[in-house]
Amino acid sequence: MKKSVSYVVSVVTMIATSIALGFIFNAIFPSVKVEYENQSLYRPWEDPLMYLYFLQPFVLTAALIWGWNKIKGLFNGTIAQKAFNLSLIYFFVAIVPAMLMTVSSFKISVLAIVTWTISAFFQAYFPSLIFIRMSK
């Protein structure tokens, strides 16, 4: 039961982080918001395939928890330090290569890629804090 609660709370935290950072970055960088509204680059929310977007927090949280259970013995320090280190591993293994491929392959601004990169790190960090804390 505790694992299920940890998983659900972590998923909700990831979704909330994504939404909050989206609002913040759109407010700070209006050009990024305009870019997101370009339907030649992005699907409209009315497209049923956009519902797949909401699977990402469930899959990523499950992967982070699974990975954490495999490597948690390698980490020392506070819960925040452990979450930061786990997030860094994810960041350098998955996010940096994905963003390099994205910036080189798609006509998306570097600013949008930078905001995605920052968001991705925090979308891993905050849920990691929760499930590491709840696993104690």
Q: In words, what does this structure look like?
A:
The chain has 136 residues and is mostly helical. The protein has one domain (2-134). Helix content is 75%, strand content 0%. The chain is built from five helices and no strands. It has helices at residues 2-28, 30-36, 56-71, 79-105, 110-134. Helix 1 (2-28) packs across helix 2 (30-36), helix 3 packs across helix 5 and helix 4 packs antiparallel against helix 5. The mean pLDDT is 93.
Itemize the secondary structure elements and their pairings.
Blueprint: H1 2-28, H2 30-36, H3 56-71, H4 79-105, H5 110-134
Keywords:
136 residues, mainly alpha
State the gist of this model.
The protein is mainly α and 136 residues long. Helices cover 75% and strands 0% of the residues.
Q: What distance separates the N and C termini?
A: 14 Å
What is the oligomeric state here?
single chain
Please state the average pLDDT score. Answer: 93
Share in β-strands: under 5%
Structural class: mainly alpha
Count helical runs: 5
The helix fraction, in percent, is over 70%
Helix-strand sequence: HHHHH
- General form: globular
Whole-angstrom Rg: 16 Å
Total tally of structural domains: 1
Largest sheet: none
Poorly predicted residue ranges: none
In total, how many beta strands?
0
